[in-house]
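Sharing a chain and its predicted structure for anyone who wants a worked example. Both blocks are below, sequence first, tokens second.
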Amino acid sequence: MATVTGSGAQPGLADCTPADTASPAHPPQSVLTDAGDLLRALAAPVRIAIVLQLRAADRCVHELVDALDVAQPLISQHLRVLKTAGVVQGERRGREVVYRLADDHLAHIVVDAVAHVQEGK
């Protein structure tokens, strides 16, 4: 297929090439589904705040309650969602469970999203 140039082309679209000439590899549907599940797990404001807290340091539930001013049952519920999605891991220490991020990639997703929103304001 020929490149569009000259008259007849839309303004600003000179030298357009067809999209199919350099399309990136398409991940399997299962990978796309898992990525969607991960993003949904990160989609709640309280869960974003939890990830930001855990990025700074490992925390137990009562520390997250104090830092975020959210009721303990709600923090526990959000931690369950994050744990199920593989975002956080918990380790029992005596009577408490200390939570930490599963890996730094997840923190980068949240930090980049927050920074992107702040740039527009």
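Comments welcome. Confidence is low (pLDDT under 50) at residues 1-10.
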